[in-house]
Design goal:
- Helices cover 38% and strands 20% of the residues.
- It is an alpha/beta fold.
- The protein has a 6-stranded parallel β-sheet with strand order 15-16-14-17-18-19, sandwiched between helices. Strands 10-9-11-12-13 form a 5-stranded parallel β-sheet, with helices on both faces.
- Helix 1 packs across helix 4, helix 12 runs parallel beside helix 17 and helix 14 packs parallel to helix 15.
- The protein is globular and about 60 Å long.
Length: 498
Amino acid sequence: MSAVIINAVRKGFYLDSVALMRMSRSLADLDGVEEAAMMMGTPANLQIMEDAGLIDEVGKDAGGGDLVIGIRAVDLAAAELARAEANAQLDAPAARSGTAETWRPRTMRAAVKEVPDANLALISVPGDFAIAEARKAIRRGLHAMIFSDNVGVEAEAELKREAQRLGRLVMGPDCGTAIINGTPLAFANVVSRGGIGLVGASGTGTQEVSCLISQYGGGISHAIGVGGRDLKSEVGGISTLMAIDALGHDAATEHIVLISKPPPAEVASKVLDRIAVIGKPTTICFIGASDLPMPDNATQVYSLKAAAQAALGLNDDNGSSLDVTLGSTLERPKIQGLYSGGTLCAEAQVLFRAADLAVCSNAPVPGVPDVDDANIGHRLLDLGDDQYTQGRPHPMIEPSVRDDAVVAALNDPDTAIILVDVVIGYGAHSDPAGHLVAVLCDNAPSDAPLVIASVTGTDEDPQIRATQMAKLRDAGVHVAPTNADAAQWAIELINAAS
């Protein structure tokens, strides 16, 4: 019997993509449901749903401001039950408020009128509309943080040039992390306040460094995200330069840390020149970059852990050691890294490359081959990359996205060690360690690979870092103090076995 596909369209109904992704996963878990998605009806989203086999003629007529429910099930009864559950979930917020008439601003103009003293707009709408909303914000005197992705790079550059002329900072698009005046925005953590200001073109990199600084006894003045493409040639580092200027003139910021993948030479030169002009002590972490000529007030480091230590004037230590052997997996040649954080994956690649270990990745740093071009040696995968998350939640939001890869690695006869990250904080899953432990316990064979993990977060986060670490340890997972330490443990073990 062929599967049944049904759609429902809610005209002019908007809900944040993160909430929609979580609801979609709950529908997909229902009996008889093969796949489900709730997405705004933009052309890009409709294409994703069509590619996933979730669109019928009803859904194809949706517009960008409409919400589309797509369900594929084994029979009509299962599909109808899932659609009813979807509608119940979508109606729940109005029910909880006690009235469907609760007023919320539906336009930027109305929001500014409602909160006239606001100076920052956080924008999380489908990418087709994000630039227009951000432009409304900056023209009304607001800085903008754009959580949305799927925005063209030329549109990003044009928006940022206008914002620069207006003296407004644009963080993003695809800016997942910021801490402004102690307030965490999007994926961020509860960290101590202090004199270190971060500028990050990387969300999880910013999270790791801010959390380590807090754990080491320091504190954060601000963490300004700029979006992953800000340092590309097409954009030219506009937001990065403005963020450096802002931190340079901020009395509460004594030291600046810059975190990014390596920018093109001409953009790197502009950034380093600006740092020299600002004059404050600065730590530069261009993950995967070779040595660069630093101004007198800047120090280049090569890992996120080293960035946190350098910002605090701590000596770069070699980390702790793992007193364990590979046991029954001694003869296996491979390490697999299964990361939810892209920059954590990049940091591990840098350490593997420095140890002269053959490594490939789907998100390679300079000097590391792409996994599709050279499927050899150790494999470090960024499972939060677009190829894994189109139409699906990010693994930091919904860790089940990583389950299939974890199960496959557990049962791979060539894999000796599995590296995983657990990222907590606002926006992240409520218990990612607990979910991972359940997958390991249900699927690990008797001769399963060694599992090494790290937890990015703090004990003040809602999930509590110490609790997450304890759950992992209780399940036999070896928990490293940092992502860098986890990679180093794996490197040492595989080298000792060779």
